[in-house]
């Protein structure tokens, strides 16, 4: 029996899920799909992995050590696609502690939040002196890790349908059947989904947000922030991503108002209070610092909830073709 690991990586919003469902399906562009009627598999493997990011690479590296029949399907042409786009500021919030005062490699690894448990690849702490590394350093590191298991990775392949197979113990029928852009794959024993964040979140509780025809997945970056000069900006969200956008705008925007959209009882959650690295990190709190020092910015997590908001298109002399966020009045009971 092959061991199965679940990798929880602090360096990104990645996930590993051992699939145990009757049917999972998703849609992709029809141009990416071969309309084949053939039910016979184009490949057959004991273990199938979807995604060649940090989690997928960690998993396949561990499986290869046990001589497992494993394949990874990656929709992009190279591994680590998430870190080519995110974070938009290009600075990670995962700690890269190079010096610990001790000689043991195991202790050093506990304070290296970016490296995987792999051999023959230099860890991140030997690649950059930055305490919070540049995302491009992570991309280069993941490409080097992928090279060690390259024969197990199938690039430019999108999985668009997952079906539960018969899963018989005679090793004839598959446990899962995957339809992808180049054919059909049979997963005889295990399926691991390591895709991380699929698409940017578009809150459907905010009226009109997802139907205005504007691409809200492209938030401001330090390179594009100049176009927001002297503007008033409302940021919805109180996590690290929201503060990252605020940091990108701080040199140009006149006002930056950040609305946490959280339960007012729970409020914002900061890592220095909760001791959880996924909550808002102190390194992202420059906007909060400016707000507390009364520099025209605003940070709030009370009085506004998603279901009370609507995004309305407007035009005026100062902000042509800009969208504004308004708070809807709550109906009286």
Draw up the topology in text.
Elements: E1 17-18, E2 23-25, E3 43-50, H1 54-65, E4 70-73, H2 81-85, H3 105-110, H4 135-148, E5 153-154, E6 159-164, E7 176-180, E8 183-193, E9 232-236, H5 240-249, E10 255-259, H6 271-274, H7 286-292, E11 298-300, E12 309-314, E13 322-327
Parallel strand pairs: 3-4, 3-8, 4-5, 9-10, 10-11
Antiparallel strand pairs: 1-8, 2-6, 6-7, 7-8, 12-13
How much strand content do the residues show? 15-25%
Tell me how many strands there are.
13
Instruction: Give the termini separation.
Output: 60 Å
What is the share of helical residues?
10-25%
Q: What characterizes the major β-sheet? A: 8 strands, mixed
What pattern of helices and strands is seen along the backbone?
EEEHEHHHEEEEEHEHHEEE
**Low-pLDDT stretches:** 1-38, 316-333
Task: Write down the overall geometry.
Answer: globular
Main structural class: alpha/beta
Instruction: Compute the number of helices.
Output: 7
The Cα radius of gyration reads 23 Å
Average of the residue pLDDT scores: 75
Explain this structure:
The chain contains seven helices and 13 strands. The chain has helices at 54-65, 81-85, 105-110, 135-148, 240-249, 271-274, 286-292; strands at 17-18, 23-25, 43-50, 70-73, 153-154, 159-164, 176-180, 183-193, 232-236, 255-259, 298-300, 309-314, 322-327. The strands form three sheets. Strands 1, 2, 3, 4, 5, 6, 7 and 8 form an eight-stranded mixed beta sheet that branches. A three-stranded parallel beta sheet has the order 9-10-11, covered by helices on one side. The radius of gyration is 23 Å and the shape is globular. The termini are far apart. The relative contact order is 0.14. Residues 1-38 and 316-333 have low confidence and may be disordered.
């Amino acid at each position: 029996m092959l061991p199965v690991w679940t990798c929880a990586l602090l360096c990104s919003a990645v996930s590993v899920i051992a699939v145990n469902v009757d049917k999972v399906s998703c849609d992709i562009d029809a141009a990416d799909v071969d309309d084949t009627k053939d039910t016979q598999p184009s490949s057959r493997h004991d273990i199938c992995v979807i995604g060649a990011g940090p989690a997928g690479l960690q998993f396949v590296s561990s499986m290869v050590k046990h001589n497992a029949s494993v394949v990874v399907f990656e929709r992009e042409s190279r591994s680590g696609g998430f870190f080519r786009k995110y974070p938009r500021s290009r600075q990670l919030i995962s700690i890269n502690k190079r010096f610990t005062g001790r000689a043991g490699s195991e202790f050093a690894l506990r304070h290296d939040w970016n490296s995987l448990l792999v051999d023959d690849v230099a860890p991140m702490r030997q690649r950059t002196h930055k305490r919070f590394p540049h995302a491009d350093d992570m991309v280069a590191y993941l490409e080097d890790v992928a090279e060690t298991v390259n024969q197990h990775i199938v690039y430019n392949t999108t999985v668009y349908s997952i079906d539960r197979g018969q899963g018989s113990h005679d090793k004839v029928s598959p446990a899962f059947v995957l339809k992808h852009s180049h054919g059909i794959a049979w997963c005889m024993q295990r399926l691991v989904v390591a895709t991380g964040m699929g698409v940017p979140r578009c809150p459907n509780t905010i009226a009109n947000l997802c139907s205005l025809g504007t691409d809200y997945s492209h938030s401001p970056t330090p390179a594009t922030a100049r176009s927001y000069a002297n503007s008033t900006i409302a940021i919805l969200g109180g996590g690290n991503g929201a503060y990252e956008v605020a940091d990108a705008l701080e040199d140009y925007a006149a006002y930056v108002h950040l609305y946490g959209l959280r339960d007012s009882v729970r409020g914002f959650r900061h890592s220095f209070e909760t001791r959880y690295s996924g909550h808002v990190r102190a390194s992202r709190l420059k906007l909060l610092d400016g707000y507390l020092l009364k520099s025209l910015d605003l940070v709030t997590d009370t009085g506004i909830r998603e279901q009370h908001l609507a995004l309305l298109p407007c035009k005026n002399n100062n902000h042509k073709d800009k969208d504004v966020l308004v708070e809807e009045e709550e109906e009286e009971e």
